[in-house]
C-alpha cells in the first residue's frame, strides 16, 4: 500500500473544513446579529429580534408554499422517475454513458432559458399554438399545476439517475433466485428489487426536494411573481442587503439539510448513488 | 393397484399468474411512458430551438424561418460578454477541479478506512446542500475575506465557488475507479524503480481515465448550468449567462440570439457526446478481440 499518497488528501480536508464548516457557522451566527449593509462590522451586535420574521404572514406563506410544492414535486418525481429508471433497467438499452447523456443534455441549455421556454408554451398565446395550432400545456401559467410541471421536469433527472445507478448494481442472480423460490414478478419487485434500489430513491428524493424547496427562479417565472416561495424571500433580502434576515432564513433550510445528511448516512454512506 | 386419481397441482395453485397475454400491452405502455417523459424533458429545448429560427422578436408569434439570429450572436456585445464570462469561469473551475479532484481522490483512497468514510461523507455536502445555502454562506465568507482582499468579488469568487461545488463530482466519479485498481500495479511499478508520484502519472491516471472523464463532464455541466450560487457570489458587472438572462428577462427584451446560442451549444455538446461514445465503443470492441 502506498501511504505516501495520503498526503494528497490533506489539502482537500483543509479546503472542505474551511468551506463547509466556517461559512455554515458564519451563516448561523449572522442570523443572530443586526448586520445589514448599513452597519459596519465594528458595531456588530447580537440580537434575537430577527426571529420576529417567523411571525410575518408573508414569510410563513413562503415556507408553506415551498414545503407543499417541494413535497409534491418529490413525490411526483419519485413515481415517474422510478418508472422510467425501471423501464430503462429492464430494457436492453444498457449503455450507462448514453443514458447519462440523455438526462444531462437538457442542462446545457440555461436553466432560466428552459423555464422561460416552458412559460412561453404555458401562456395563452404561445409559439406552439401559432405554429401547430395547439400546445399541450396551454393556459397553465400561474397555476399550481404549471409550477409543478416546471419543477418536476427540471429536477426529475436528479431522481432518475440515482435510481438507475442503484438498479444497475443489483445482481441479476437475485432476481432469478427469487423466481426459483416461487415469488411472482410483483413480489420479487416488492421484496427484492425495490429494497435494493431504495438508496437511490433516498438520494434522488434529497436531490429533488432541496433545490425545489429553496429555489427561486422557477416559482418566480412560472407563477409570474404571484406566488412567494422561501427562495424568493431570501433573494429579496439579499438584493436589499438585509443580510441578517437572509442568513437566518437560509439557516432554517439547514435543518432540512441535516435531516437529508442523516438519511443519506443511514441509507447510502458511500454516496454510491450520487452519480 | 387402485385407480386412485391424485389431485393435479397447477402452477396457479402456487400463486403463479400467466401474464404472457398482457406483456405486449405492458411493453407498449412502458415505451410510450418513456417517450412521453423524455419528450417532456426536451420540450423546453424544442421551444428554445423553435425560437432560435423565428424571425419575429415577439416570442409568441412565429413569423418565418431564419438563421440570422445565429450570425447575430457576434453583434450582441452584452451576450458575448456573458458567454465569455461563463466559459472563463467554467473552464478554469472545471480544469482545476479535474486535476485537483483526481489527486485528492487518489489521496482519499489511501486514507485509513474510518477517516476515508468521514471525508467521503463531507464530500457529499456540497452536492446535497441547497444551492441557496451554499451561495449565501460562501458569499458571507467572501465578504469577510473582502476586508483583506478588497477586489475579490467577480472572477475570483465565482471560480472559487464553482470549484467548491464541482470538486465533489470529480472525486465521486474517480473514487469507484480507484477501488477497482489493483494496488499491486503501483507496487510493481515502484519495484521497477519508478518514483511514487511518477507512478500516478504512468499507472493510476491511465487506469482511472473513464472516471476522470465522466467527473469532468459532470463538473462542466453543473458549472455551465449554475445560476443560484453564481447569483450570490458574483461581483458587480461580472455577469455570467444565467445571471444576465435572469436580469434581462425582468426587462422583457431578450435577444433571440440567446436562443440561437443555447441551441448551438446543446447540439454541439450532444453531438460530441454521441461521437465520444461511438469512439469509446469501437475501442472497447477492439480490446475484446
Tell me the name of the CATH homologous superfamily of the domain at 57-230 in chain A: MetI-like
Quaternary organisation of the protein chains: heterodimer
Structural class of chain A: mainly alpha
> CATH class of the domain at 84-254 in chain B, anyone?
Mainly Alpha
The percent of residues in helical segments of chain A reads: 55-70%
Throw out a few tags for this protein.
heterodimer; A: about 280 residues; mainly alpha; 12 helices; B: about 290 residues
Short description:
With 275 residues, chain A is mainly alpha-helical.
Structure, described:
The complex is a heterodimer of chains A (275) and B (289). With 275 residues, chain A is an all-alpha fold. Chain A has 12 helices and no strands. The radius of gyration of chain A is 23 Å and the shape is globular. With 289 residues, chain B is mainly alpha-helical. Chain B has a domain at 84-254: Orthogonal Bundle (MetI-like fold). Helix content of chain B is 73%, strand content 0%. In chain B, helix 1 crosses helix 12, helix 3 runs antiparallel to helix 9 and helix 4 (113-128) packs across helix 6. The N and C termini of chain B lie far apart (64 Å). The relative contact order of chain B is 0.12. Classes of the chains: A mainly alpha (275), B mainly alpha (289).
Give the arrangement of secondary structure elements.
The complex is a heterodimer of chains A (275) and B (289).
Chain A (H helix, E strand, L loop, with lengths): L9 H21 L26 H34 L5 H9 L6 H12 L4 H6 L11 H12 L1 H12 L3 H9 L4 H30 L2 H6 L7 H10 L3 H25 L8
Helix pairs in contact in A: 1-12, 2-6, 2-7, 2-9, 2-11, 7-9, 8-9, 9-12, 11-12
Chain B lengths: L22 H30 L15 H5 L4 H33 L3 H16 L2 H15 L9 H26 L2 H9 L4 H12 L1 H17 L2 H6 L7 H11 L5 H32 L1
Helix pairs in contact in B: 1-12, 3-6, 3-9, 4-6, 6-9, 7-8
Amino acid at each position: 500500500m502506498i501511504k505516501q499518497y495520503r498526503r494528497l488528501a490533506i489539502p482537500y480536508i483543509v479546503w472542505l473544513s474551511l468551506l463547509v464548516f466556517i461559512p455554515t457557522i458564519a451563516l448561523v451566527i449572522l442570523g443572530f446579529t443586526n448586520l445589514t449593509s448599513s452597519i459596519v462590522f465594528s458595531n456588530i451586535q447580537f440580537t434575537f429580534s430577527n426571529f420576529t420574521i417567523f411571525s410575518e404572514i408573508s414569510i410563513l406563506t413562503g415556507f408553506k408554499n415551498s414545503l407543499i410544492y417541494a413535497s409534491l414535486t418529490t413525490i411526483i418525481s419519485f413515481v415517474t422517475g422510478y418508472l422510467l429508471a425501471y423501464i430503462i433497467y429492464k430494457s436492453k438499452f444498457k449503455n450507462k454513458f448514453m443514458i447519462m447523456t440523455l438526462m444531462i443534455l437538457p442542462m446545457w441549455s440555461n436553466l432560466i432559458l428552459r423555464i422561460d421556454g416552458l412559460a412561453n408554451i404555458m401562456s395563452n398565446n404561445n409559439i406552439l399554438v401559432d405554429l401547430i395550432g395547439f400546445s399541450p400545456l396551454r393556459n397553465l401559467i400561474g397555476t399550481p399545476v404549471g409550477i409543478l410541471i416546471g419543477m418536476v421536469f427540471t429536477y426529475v433527472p436528479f431522481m432518475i439517475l440515482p435510481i438507475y445507478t442503484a438498479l444497475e448494481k443489483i445482481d441479476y442472480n437475485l432476481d432469478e433466485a427469487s423466481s426459483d423460490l416461487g415469488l411472482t414478478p410483483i413480489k420479487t419487485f416488492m421484496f427484492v428489487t425495490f429494497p435494493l434500489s431504495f438508496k437511490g430513491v433516498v438520494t434522488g428524493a434529497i436531490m429533488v426536494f432541496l433545490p425545489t424547496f429553496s429555489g427561486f427562479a422557477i416559482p418566480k417565472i412560472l407563477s409570474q411573481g404571484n406566488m412567494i416561495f422561501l427562495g424568493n424571500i431570501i433573494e429579496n433580502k439579499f438584493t436589499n442587503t438585509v443580510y441578517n434576515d437572509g442568513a437566518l432564513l437560509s439557516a432554517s433550510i439547514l435543518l432540512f439539510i441535516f435531516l437529508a445528511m442523516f438519511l443519506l448516512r443511514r441509507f447510502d454512506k458511500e454516496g454510491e448513488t450520487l452519480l | 393397484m387402485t385407480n386412485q386419481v391424485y389431485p393435479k397441482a397447477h402452477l396457479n395453485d402456487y400463486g403463479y399468474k400467466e401474464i404472457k397475454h398482457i406483456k405486449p400491452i405492458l411493453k407498449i405502455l412502458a415505451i410510450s411512458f418513456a417517450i412521453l417523459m423524455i419528450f417532456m424533458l426536451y420540450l423546453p429545448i424544442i421551444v428554445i430551438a423553435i425560437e432560435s429560427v423565428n424571425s419575429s422578436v415577439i416570442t409568441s408569434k412565429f413569423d418565418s424561418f431564419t438563421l440570422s439570429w445565429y450570425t447575430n450572436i457576434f453583434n450582441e456585445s452584452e451576450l458575448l460578454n456573458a458567454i465569455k464570462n461563463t466559459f472563463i469561469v467554467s473552464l478554469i473551475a472545471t480544469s482545476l477541479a479535474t486535476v485537483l479532484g483526481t489527486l485528492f481522490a487518489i489521496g482519499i483512497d489511501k486514507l485509513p478506512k474510518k477517516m476515508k468514510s468521514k471525508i467521503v461523507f463531507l464530500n457529499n455536502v456540497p452536492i446535497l446542500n441547497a444551492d441557496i445555502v451554499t451561495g449565501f454562506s460562501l458569499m458571507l465568507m467572501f465578504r469577510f475575506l473582502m476586508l483583506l482582499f478588497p477586489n475579490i468579488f467577480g472572477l475570483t469568487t465565482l471560480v472559487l465557488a464553482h470549484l467548491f461545488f464541482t470538486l465533489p463530482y470529480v472525486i465521486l466519479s474517480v473514487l469507484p475507479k480507484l477501488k477497482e485498481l489493483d494496488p499491486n500495479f503501483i507496487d510493481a511499478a515502484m519495484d521497477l524503480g519508478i518514483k511514487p508520484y511518477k507512478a500516478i502519472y504512468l499507472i493510476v491516471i491511465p487506469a482511472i481515465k473513464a472516471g476522470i472523464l465522466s467527473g469532468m463532464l459532470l463538473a462542466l455541466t453543473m458549472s455551465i448550468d449554475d445560476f443560484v450560487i453564481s447569483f450570490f457570489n458574483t461581483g458587480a458587472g461580472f455577469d455570467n449567462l444565467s445571471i444576465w438572462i435572469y436580469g434581462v428577462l425582468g426587462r422583457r427584451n431578450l435577444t433571440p440570439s440567446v436562443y440561437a446560442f443555447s441551441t448551438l451549444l446543446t447540439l454541439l455538446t450532444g453531438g460530441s457526446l454521441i461521437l465520444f461514445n461511438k469512439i469509446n465503443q469501437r475501442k472497447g470492441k477492439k480490446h475484446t478481440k
